[in-house]
Design goal:
This protein has two domains: 265 residues, TIM Barrel; 67 residues, Type Iii Antifreeze Protein Isoform Hplc 12 (Alpha-Beta Complex). The chain has an eight-stranded parallel sheet. It has a two-stranded antiparallel sheet with strand order 1-2. Strands 11-12 form a two-stranded antiparallel sheet. Helix 1 runs parallel beside helix 4 and helix 6 packs across helix 7. The chain contains twelve helices and twelve strands. The chain is elongated. By secondary structure, the protein is of the alpha/beta class.
Amino acid sequence: MTEIKLGKSTVRAGGRPYVIAEIGVNHEGSMDTAKRLIDLCKEGGADAAKFQTYKASRIASKHSPAYWDTSKEPTQSQHKLFQKYDMFGKDEYVTLAEHCQDVGIDFLSTPFDSDAADFLDPLLPFHKIASADLTNVPLLRQIAGKKKPVLLSTGASTLDEIDHAVSTLEKAGCQDLILLHCILNYPCPNENAHLDMIKGLRHTYPDTLIGYSDHTLPDERMLILTAAWQKGAVVLEKHFTHDKTLPGNDHYHAMDVHDLKRFIENVDLLTVVSGEQGKKPLDAEAPAREHARRSIVIDRPLKAGTVLDESDLTYKRPAHGISPLHWDEVVGRSLSTDLEEDHILQWEDLA
């Protein structure tokens, strides 16, 4: 797969990344905050603003323990945590999708159950499946049947599990698939990021585009996300907030608009300096080729008829005469005229 259309963009290996700012439920049930976050995603330069769509009663039992850093998010039950943030329904997501369209950014939301997958589908240019649902065969089949591109996060997964998920999606009708490297730590310590797994996935799935869903704490220069792109991730997803100091949920490991802008600046700079792969001299290098390269130069005064020996010659700038590339062709030739020391040798000087 050389390229895939995602919303308003086309992603391909070696191209600019498609950047997903994952608002998730950092709106905390406020439509005004959700719209403001969309605006900030656009301001920061993201390609998509993404939410999470679930109902606590459909995603987790009442006996589901916490698996996150409870010093940051103290809720001890998944069910209780999801209950805090499952206020939005179909109408709210339609409103958010319309707001995304108004500001010119792709709308996305990850569905966590069958109902969500169905009512979100008309609003989405493509689907994102969370790492936790990589083994959820019925949901994989349902989403694949929508016949849209699919992004599949692979956090906490074995290669056998990824193989099974890929096979399930393909058999159910998915034709455009992007796998996202992901580590399910919240937050993910830098030493656990294992960005070289991006290379591993590219090697294991050479015909599939690879991306990265990041849970590390945003560093000042956004080097981790930048490095993931440089290692071949064509889609980059990271949690997004308007205030990283807010307690609980996904604020504490999210980027804000300033982080996002710094990352986009990194992409802009590296896109400029990356240039073309094929090695060739640039027009801008023409003066250096002409004036900084060497010519064969006469090292002492010589008379016409002198048979040139290496001791008669040296090499100096500029490259206005015979190049030292032809050194072996020049040695042993005789001169057609008298030449002074430091003369830049020309072919017409040779008999």
